[in-house]
Amino acid sequence: MAGLKTAKSVSMRNQEPAERKKNFEEVALGYSEEEALTESKRCVHFAPKLLDDGRTILCCPERPCTKGCPVGVDIPDFIKAVRDGEMQKAVDILKAKNSLPGVCGRVCPQESQCQAECVVKDAGDPVEIGRLERYVADWELGQRKKSPLKDLKITPTGKKVAVVGSGPAGLTVAGDLAKNGHKVVMYEALHVAGGVLMYGIPEFRLPKDVVMSEVEYVRSLGVEIKLDHVVGKIITADELLESGYDAVFLGPGAGAPMFLNIEGENLNGIFSANEFLTRVNLMKSYLFPDYDTPVQKSRVVAVIGAGNVAMDATRCALRIGAEQVHIIYRRSMEEVPARHEEVEHALEEGVVFNILTNPIKFIGDEKGNVTEMICQKMELGEPDQSGRRRPFPIKDSEFSIKIDAAIIALGTYPNPVIPETTSELELTRWGTIKTDENTGRTSRKGIWCGGDMATGAATVISAMGAGKRAAKDMDEYLKNN
Amino acid sequence: MNKILKKEILTDKIHMFEVEAPQMAKKARAGQFIILKISDKAERIPLTIADYDRERGTITIVFMEVGKSSTELATLNEGDYIECFAGPLGKPTEDENYGTVICVGGGFAIAPIHAIAKAMKQAGNKVITIIGARTKHLLFWEDKIRAVSDEVTIVTDDGSYGRKALVTEPLKELLTERSDVKLVVAVGPVMMMKFCSLTTKPFDIKTMVSLNPIMIDGTGMCGCCRVSVGGRTRFACVDGPDFDGHEVDWDVLQLRQTAYIKEEKTSMDRYMSEVNKDGSRGDI
Ligand SMILES: Cc1cc2nc3c(=O)[nH]c(=O)nc-3n(C[C@H](O)[C@H](O)[C@H](O)COP(=O)(O)OP(=O)(O)OC[C@H]3O[C@@H](n4cnc5c(N)ncnc54)[C@H](O)[C@@H]3O)c2cc1C
Ligand SMILES: Cc1cc2nc3c(=O)[nH]c(=O)nc-3n(C[C@H](O)[C@H](O)[C@H](O)COP(=O)(O)OP(=O)(O)OC[C@H]3O[C@@H](n4cnc5c(N)ncnc54)[C@H](O)[C@@H]3O)c2cc1C
Ligand code: FES
After folding, report:
1. Which of A131, A350, A409, B107 could form a disulfide with A273 if both were Cys (CB 3.0 to 4.6 A apart)?
2. Under CATH, to which class is B100-210 assigned?
3. Is A226 an interface residue toward B (CB < 8 Å)?
């Protein structure tokens, strides 16, 4: 194949592990122009292939990467634009399908999406699509900083939309509908917009500057953002519709943390990952006492779970000074759901993985602080509904680990505040809002939903994609009603 | 951004703010709370809605200076803005017509108990209110409490005003004397709520308390506010803050409240030394 000059992709420069585990600055430093150019040349989509009969065809005509992308970004086209030095064109191609490329380039699980399908993979590393995406997005952010956004010519339609929640789903809907001329008001429960991108994912993986520029962009389109407004409390979705909004989009995420429900879980020093990450990221407690919100500084920390959230918790714990950080996971390394890069980075930083291990009890001292965790060893049996092999406890395998903090990262479920306060909204048995996947419509006319509230905890790109589809359907509805 | 329309020093270290919040005032009910944050670097702190005025569009909060955040909050004045002011949060107190209700409030909680007594009165109950403080000059809102109660008992620890007693003493007497009490609501320091619950238990009278664990978001997202009630873990910010006092595990609540004592002291000491240095607050 013509384009396959090297089997290895251009690696991305990272901060050194020993250094970076002491700071909150971004770990992955991004491609330089030259690196991006080199990597872009590894894509073989447009490379001609000579057939025996003398005809030439494209090397990779099927665009499997685009099929692997949950929102169908025209990946070979944007990569070609990078190769041709047409950066604005690359931006436009990306943004046609993905309104948050700077975020997705950094946090998408590319290895199980676009890059999993890349044909170059057969001969070595897949094309680093995510890193190229980030490169393009960062270029565009740089341009935005240089020359503030031009006023887009938007013709007002006179229609008014309320968007609840300012995570990736809400931001996408708000941006798209505002561009179509609808008046959008966004309601956010917290004191900053951005959802999990602000309160969950740490600075060293997703700089808050990147998120804030996306929020500012949406604001620049004329979207009004009402912070500190908990829908269901200060105003319900029903009341939004009654008070003059023509449509409502619900994107409140799936924010409620799950606990293990085992003995001793309410001891001090035991946090949900949400609490720990909120303290550290949203409230900036790593800068305590400069910032007022404290976070417990611990020596030995156990993080229960092995998803992205767990990896973020381990690495934040290291950065605020923990000496030893353990992942406690009941399945094996193969089932670890976090992005590969996060697991790799955590390992490099010295996080210890205790696999096939399950906590069964916490023990504390007289002051109510956790001091010890009792675990049992697990083994894997037959696959369960999720397709992963089900873990079983091994008899008499209990053992104890001395800890002074435990962070529970088992996942989250939908917060019931909105479902409980909105009439005629059908729910699924998991407490998510029943939503048509293609249009984002709920059972209630005038109300759409998308993101983690519709699917259960998922990914940034899927929330963003759901936002795109809902915005399209809402736009049609608004034009016709 | 919400404007402070009125500020009053109710007593030593206890302040009242009337805050402009028209949309919230329409929705607020007794027993609910707000979360505020006064600057970029500040923490989010929960305070009970002590009163609201739907016409004027105001929310009243009453708070005691206990550490850095509340002390700094007290430096704000009429006309100043509070950066973040979210609410109404939590479930309202169930203000049905029960018949006769006893409301007990101690310390700064005289303010929240006022809101509850008022709601109970409006719901058609006969309201008996007991308020208490360490000493006379720490009492406030006696007139407001009288205006929404059928009977009022005032106690002080040192006997400098009203009866020399703890709130549990008149509570016990009332329960012994009267058979028509259907509900007791107690709001105040943990110890006070715990002992009120222990007092009412032998009489088998439903007792609601308002729990005040450490909170962050106040929307059910972090689980920092978890409490143990009837053997189950509940989130005080969304499942409460009102719970059945006979079911609460008081030890868990008390220990969890102390989780950050060391850091709270660091924060306060640092703040006080800054304040003393630049002299920006002569009154403390
Ligand atoms: C620590 C962590 C790490 C993650 N890492 C990755 C990763 O690497 N890659 C990836 O793809 N995904 C990752 N995810 C998942 C991803 O962040 C989510 O799937 C995505 O953010 C969901 O978007 P959303 O718009 O549905 O909701 P959210 O991002 O959850 O935003 C919802 C917003 O709505 C607000 N809200 C909630 N209720 C109300 C209400 N009643 N009224 C008003 N506002 C309300 C919330 O405060 C929040 O701001 C991670 C998640 C976490 C927690
Ligand atoms: C639902 C609820 C309603 C409340 N209503 C009132 C009220 O009406 N008036 C009033 O004076 N106080 C009220 N409180 C308590 C008030 O929030 C705390 O006094 C305040 O947060 C203390 O902050 P600080 O920095 O001044 O003190 P710190 O020195 O930080 O703390 C002093 C003590 O206050 C508690 N506390 C600290 N941080 C928090 C936090 N983020 N959330 C909750 N408690 C905390 C801890 O137990 C701590 O030991 C309420 C608390 C809750 C949970
Ligand atoms: S304060 Fe975070 S869940 Fe209650």
Report:
1. A409
2. alpha beta
3. no
